[in-house]
Amino acid sequence: MMHPHLTAKKLMSSAPIFTPPFMDAAPRGLCTDCGISRTSEPKRCGQACQFIAPDYDALEMKVHGRVRDENKTDELHFGPHLRMARAALTHPLEGAQWTGITTRIAERLLETGAVDAVLTMAPDPVDKWKPKPVLITRAADMAACRGMRMGYAPLLALLEPARELGYKRIAVIGIPCQVYALRALEESLGFERVYVIGTPCSDNTTTAHFHEFLSLISVEPETITYLEFRADYHVEIRYTDGRVKAIPFLMLPLSKLPSDFFPLTCRTCVDYTNVLADITVGYMGGEGQQWLIVRNTRGEELLNLLGDEITLHTPGSRGNRMGPVKGFMKNVERAAGGLPLRAMPNWLRPVVGWLMPKVGPRGLEFARARVEMKAIESVLHLRREEPAKIKHMIPKHVWKLVEVYGLKPNDEAHESPNAGSNRDPREDA
Ligand SMILES: Cc1cc2nc3c(=O)[nH]c(=O)nc-3n(C[C@H](O)[C@H](O)[C@H](O)COP(=O)(O)OP(=O)(O)OC[C@H]3O[C@@H](n4cnc5c(N)ncnc54)[C@H](O)[C@@H]3O)c2cc1C
Ligand code: SF4
Ligand code: SF4
């Protein structure tokens, strides 16, 4: 049978926004369908997957020339970086999730001819919340990709078509589980240059589940055009008629969601801040603005493309994360597989919801708190649901993050990581 992407050249001839037909995904255990199982060599998942036997030290070394320096402020939490900034585009792009820094960097790469194509996600034409992988070759077409979709789609299945089309220099915009697989295989892909613009990612779920969530927070879910979990402990929702609503996290109807609402992949992935990107564009440490983590000289090059289109400030940091993180951990333990917020009585939620933005950790301290919460979740959920995976999936720097909360590898249960050589051979098949 002809490989579906062999038709790429023919299909691409008149289409600057392009998605070839993909092969079916090979069935896997923990998997967010990053696209590798749909390529001509699906067995590479064994080497590429964040959920099998990640080796962050080796890839940090390859990508950044060094591993994270755990003695340097914030590298334990956010991974290797040269600098961080609070940032905003001077003229925010309409339809962007924040001000559109991600989109603008990709546009500049195409405008300046630094890359031949950008691999990213557009909204699916039938369901605007569903991500659809696309190859973009004209800067003007990046506008169609602005904003966030909930769910995952096989971004890396575009790598083979891109190579087949003769593209030598590409940029990839991806979430951490996609970027891990990309970096693990990068050397074998045959591109001259690969720029990686990463976004942080947490609490993702399938697009179908996300629709359930929308219908719990609105009687007209189809009128919701935008949703974001802000760093001030509110979810911002925008509607087609221009209304904007901010709901405190604690008032969200999370207890009404099924216990499998967040897949185990997204409750246990260990790279919140996309440590293998050249530049990470998020918001957690931005106190209402965007938050940039420039990780290497290529990341600097990407930021420089924006010139004076962007304003940069030193990130702030306030509050103390210990109390909220400990409280979160108790809730995860109590919820025994359900959702963490169930334990709080209903009468208390509006009060705490009002109080949190005022007294809770802010700026970089908020980002550290979220990274630690995610690390705790990963350990506790894997212990409960896939204990045999802990040894392979939890790297030593994550154990270090959770140590202060009393979580340590249980040697009797063989939880200690043995980085580098901890491939699980069962997953190679
Ligand atoms: C599921 C998800 C969860 C996130 N969680 C956090 C978080 O907890 N903390 C944080 O700081 N940031 C998080 N982000 C990133 C944040 O929402 C913004 O995307 C980011 O700050 C960039 O803003 P922007 O205005 O520069 O993006 P824009 O210029 O609007 O560009 C957004 C880019 O993201 C791509 N994209 C959209 N949806 C997806 C998707 N589902 N998968 C892959 N790529 C996609 C688009 O194709 C586009 O290229 C998350 C992103 C996603 C997709
Ligand atoms: S590398 Fe992992 S996430 Fe990607 S397709 Fe393979 S099993 Fe799924
Ligand atoms: S939460 Fe983690 S596993 Fe889930 S989509 Fe985001 S990066 Fe991938």
How many strand elements?
14
Task: Count the DSSP helices.
Answer: 15
Strand order of the largest sheet: 1-4-3-5-6-10-11-2-12
User: Taking Cα atoms only, what radius of gyration do you get, to the nearest Å?
Assistant: 21 Å
Element order: H for helix, E for strand: HEHHHEHEEHEHEHEEEHEEHEEHHEHHH
What average pLDDT do the residues reach? 89
Largest sheet: 9 strands, mixed
SS-based structural class? alpha+beta
Bound molecules: flavin-adenine dinucleotide, iron/sulfur cluster
What does this protein look like?
It is built from 15 helices and 14 strands. It has helices at 8-12, 45-48, 56-64, 75-78, 101-111, 159-164, 176-189, 207-217, 264-268, 297-304, 322-335, 349-359, 364-385, 390-393, 396-403; strands at 17-18, 83-89, 117-123, 131-136, 169-174, 193-198, 224-229, 234-239, 244-248, 279-282, 290-294, 310-313, 317-318, 362-363. Mean pLDDT is 89; it is low at 1-6, 339-343 and 419-429.
